Sequence to fold (327 residues):
Amino acid sequence: MERITIKNVAEEAGVSVTSVSRVLNNRGYISDELRNKVMSAVKKLNYTPNEIARSFFKNETRSIALIVPTINNPFFSELAFYIERELANFNYHLFVGNSLNNSMNEKEYLQMLDEKRVDGIIVGSHNMGIDEYDKIQGNIVSIERRISEKIPMIESDNYRGGKIATEELIKLGCKNIICISGNKNVDAPANNRVAAYSDVLKDNNMEEFIIEIPFSESEEEKLYRLNKLFHSNINFDGVFAGDDLMAKYIMNIANENNFNLPSDLKIIGFDGTSLMQNLVPELMTIVQPIERMAKTTVEVLLKLIKGEKVKDVYTLPVKLKAIPTSK
Fold:
């Protein structure tokens, strides 16, 4: 069967191809008579516009790129799932790029936006020193990363989360609380979790102890550092971990070292993904509103694409998932 083209529609309606294109793309002044002629021909011929051609004509791809450090992390995999689902509601496709903590990978993804291969980019990676963000003219939204003043950011209330976590550990009787943080040199809102930890301990006349374990380190490196902690002379009965995976590593090592959890050691993570809550229901954690973060990110990016104004920062609430109480 021969494919119906826009030329066939123009002949059926008795108008030019340009007029049909204007109607289908809703471009310029269109009289009711012209619109009725074209739409009647479209319906009669059962014509389906070529989306690729329409995208080229309108200088858009209907595609968005998401840059994350790695999709293996539960937070980023869940975030990607919700972003893709939300974009699908607006007929956008999602490309997921793993930067693998390599700035060159991130620069290649940014080039996609510069070359108009995607309509926008969502950035959730943690690489530093990428000045391309200041050069590229395009639609960019960041998640939990402060890139520049001109790029809007979506974040959870990290300070509030850090405050809740530290106060909960004190409430549970902890006297010596360690905070496991990421790379403090990365300008990320997650640093506010550590700031809150420090403020709460200061208010309670308690000594702080912060251990920096960068997110970019391998699992083996992280486990090595944590094992050293457990075999050091540092006395601690509470841990505020940078994320739920880190909290789970600590739980495993504590069990290997004959700690009775949670009586000997209280641990609170951060993220609260569905996967970790299902796999480790006994883990206390600060739950980020991941689905809402994804929805807000898409809303902001689509506004940018339409040329609408957006805020600089969108801060979303967090909540504590405490230890389940036995009945």
Observations:
- The longest strand covers residues 63-68.
